[in-house]
Amino acid sequence: MRGAERPTDPAGTGWPARLHVVTGKGGTGKTSVAAALAMALAAGGRRTLLVEVEGRQGIAQLFGIDPLPYEERHLTAAPGGGEVRALAVDAEEALLEYLDMFYRLGAAGRALRKFGAIDFATTIAPGLRDVLLTGKAKEATTRTVDQRRVYDAVVLDAPPTGRIGRFLNVTAETARLAKVGPIKTQSEGVAALLRSPMTAVHVVTLLEEMPVQETVDAIAELTSYGFPVGRIIVNGTRPPLPTGRAVSAAELRRGLVAAGLPTDKETVAGLHDEARDQLIRRELEDSLRTDLVELGLPMIELPLLPDGVDRAGLATLADALLRAD
Amino acid sequence: MPSEDAAPPLDVDQILADPGVRIVVCCGAGGVGKTTTAAALALRAAERHGRRTVVLTIDPARRLAQSLGLTELDNTPRQVKGIDVEASGGELHAMMLDMKRTFDDVVLAHTDPAKAAEIFANPFYQAMSSTFSGTQEYMAMEKLGQLHARGEWDLIVVDTPPSRSALDFLDAPARLSRFLDGRMLRLLLAPARSGGRSMFSLVTASFGMFSKAVQKVLGAQLLTDLSGFVAALDSMFGGFRQRAEQTYRILQARETAFLLVAAPESDAVREAAYFAGRLREERMPLAGLVLNRVHRPAVPELDAATSRAAADRLAELGGHEGTVEVLRAHAALARQAVREQQVAARFTEAFPEVPTVSVTAQPADVHDVDGLRTIGAAISRS
């Protein structure tokens, strides 16, 4: 692994890690940001792997393609000849693969699946599921062919902030329960990678109270477990208002007259109300932004995509991520 | 809104006032305001409809929990003071689910204290009761079953766990009872014993191999702990499964109303549609969809393009910076509203019969009783 070391800054950008773990509160656009980051880090002829672990098929839905199998597949090209591949890790498949690698189960493994035994084992063994999932991400991150890394970076679309600490720390939990054997070795290997500078955990948030609160909590938790926190990624931001002041109804009416728009009472009052709500919202956003800045971590803001996240939108996000310093 | 024109309107008050409805389950993706919705509905049931209500929350935001007087996880419903129930005679109680404690209680209820102590000391139990994926979902169901069995409340409002998918919540009882069934565990721990008798020799042979592999992979220590855990739990298996099945049947009954909660975002709407399909398959009563955080321009006649063009003209003209900003903001809002309607329409097209209500986005988050009351009124359209 060490022998094949190349610069740890794959796309020559501000993303100095190989395994990028992306978390965030539900609804903050975590999967879109993970996909955009995988695209950004593949720019300029590099190759990245986008991994999902929750069985939601979020990547397939985002890209409007058929459900992803447990197999690394071409997902999309990146600017400058790069490639993003995708993988939906399934814990049961990973367990079978793992058992096969060490014990050559073959047909017996398939029989076990029919019997539901694999589902059973991954369900009951505490953390086994998560160890298998993070273990697969580790394997892809460190895989080499002919002394060269297969992937310049691996981006993991991880569980949400509420579960991220437990998910990443489960390796420690499992190592405690399994006192000997390959699972212990595996767990320790994963735990070491996750706590090394090879890994960065990025937290996606919106400028809303609950996502910001969860970001603050998650960063404290991640830090206490010793996981390297990368960036705070603020999604869905709007450009600052040029004037950012309240407008009087009279002023608004004059403006509407000049613009040739209706100036009836309802229109003026309605627009005036909208402007007031907008200012309340902006003030709240500014104070939340201040809370995030106080965490003292590198922060990047991504623009709100007015038409939702489509391919063009992902490219916009990837571009913004690449410009991070 | 087109999405609402197509779908029948959801009358939440009718559900909350109906004495035949004893359970309201709020479900949906994470980050759509599920907990706030559950709390707002429970408050309204108590204040407006005079019902003795309890709201079971899973993982409320700190300030929302405080607004309900929930300062610690004590796993017991506490009465919420300072609400307006003088006229209605209702009551509101609230509790936060303590997953581990609920599990402990279940163990205590099914076994003698000595055995319970043995189970509590088992490292396998300790790990499972606090980190097992699915435990939270199962324990939410268990707690619901307990509250229902006590018969003290007219209405139980349940907030569901922020599952990775809606599936987990419905599947939790089956999954846990599969685990607690123990048949497979016993096979795993004693493959030799069943080997001679089994008709399915290939399966049994595989199981022996599997067991050996598991021993190698997990280590003998873990299997010993697991074995101790299973032996201790043995007497409780039947009771566990029976309870899980009972709760499942309660969810299918007419006294239950499922409310899907979503926001007009692709992911949340997709999750809601998926859940609606699942509820139909499981023959569980879906009462409607609450679409939170909907943006509505105050001047709907002025569309985005017109507003933007006017702003551009004014900007060129100069001297109307304030109005330019207002018109640009309006254009963005109008555009967002159109997109939200398109997203919401995907649900309505798939489930045209599901009653729907849209709730306008609040400028700020809710963390007091007044805010919950406002939300409750918005959901009820009154």
General description of the model:
- Chain B: One of its GO terms (molecular function) is ATP binding.
- Chain B: It comes from Micromonospora costi.
- Chain B: InterPro entries: ArsA/GET3_ATPase-like (IPR025723), ATPase_ArsA/GET3 (IPR016300), P-loop_NTPase (IPR027417).
- The complex is a heterodimer of chains A (325) and B (382).
- Chain A contains twelve helices and ten strands.
- Chain A is an alpha/beta fold.
- Chain A has one domain (2-240, 296-322): P-loop containing nucleotide triphosphate hydrolases (Rossmann fold, 3-Layer(aba) Sandwich).
- In chain A, the strands form two sheets. In chain A, strands 3-4-2-7-1-8-9-10 form an eight-stranded mixed sheet, sandwiched between helices. A two-stranded antiparallel sheet of chain A has the order 5-6.
- In chain A, a hairpin with a 2-residue loop joins strand 5 and strand 6 (148-149).
- The longest helix of chain A has 29 residues, at 265-293.
- Chain A is elongated.
- The relative contact order of chain A is 0.15.
- Chain B is of the alpha/beta class.
- Chain B has two domains: 2-300 and 344-380, 3-Layer(aba) Sandwich (Rossmann fold); 304-333.
- Chain B is 59% helix and 12% strand.
Query: What do the pLDDT scores of chain B average to?
Result: 82
Gyration radius of chain A, in Å: 23 Å
CATH superfamily of chain A: P-loop containing nucleotide triphosphate hydrolases
Strands side by side in the biggest sheet of chain A: 3-4-2-7-1-8-9-10
Query: Distance N terminus to C terminus of chain B?
Result: 18 Å
Record the strand order, biggest sheet of chain B. 3-4-2-5-1-6-7-8
Count of beta strands of chain B: 8
Overall body shape of chain A: elongated
As residue ranges, the low-confidence spans of chain A are 1-11
Task: Give the overall pLDDT of chain A as a whole number.
Answer: 86
- The CATH architecture name of the largest domain in chain B reads 3-Layer(aba) Sandwich
How many DSSP H or I helices of chain A? Answer: 12
Shape of chain B: elongated
**Overall tally of structural domains of chain A:** 1
Secondary structure tally, helices of chain B: 18
What percent of the residues of chain B sit in helical stretches (DSSP H or I)?
55-70%
Regions of chain B with pLDDT < 50 over 5+ consecutive residues?
191-203
Q: Residue share in helices of chain A?
A: 40-55%
